[in-house]
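WARN retry 2 of 3 for item q-0093 after timeout on previous attempt; input resubmitted unchanged.
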Amino acid sequence: MLKRGMSDIGAVQLTVSGLAQAFRLTVTSGTIWVGILFLTGFMLSYMTVLSWADYSYVMPAGAFGYALLTLLAVVFLHEAVSPRRWVGVALICVGVLLVGQTKPRTTAVTSEAVA
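OK item q-0093 returned
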């Protein structure tokens, strides 16, 4: 949504008036606000998941989002993705599958940590 919103605004001119106009258009763009809402939801979800599982599990598993974003960029933004990037996406998916085979938490949760 942020990409679509910024594409709607157009190229930003690196002058004082150009930056002021870009700021005004950005703040009044509903598409950009939806993107900010999605980012906030992601951050809250990410923090919640980090409270349940180890960082070494969450971080690689979260990389699946890169694959999903690539697919969404092709479908909704009609972006061209090279075969080399698709190979990278496939490698990320394989890595996520490998990480998914491990235990999410390797450390014990003590009653003191919960309180």
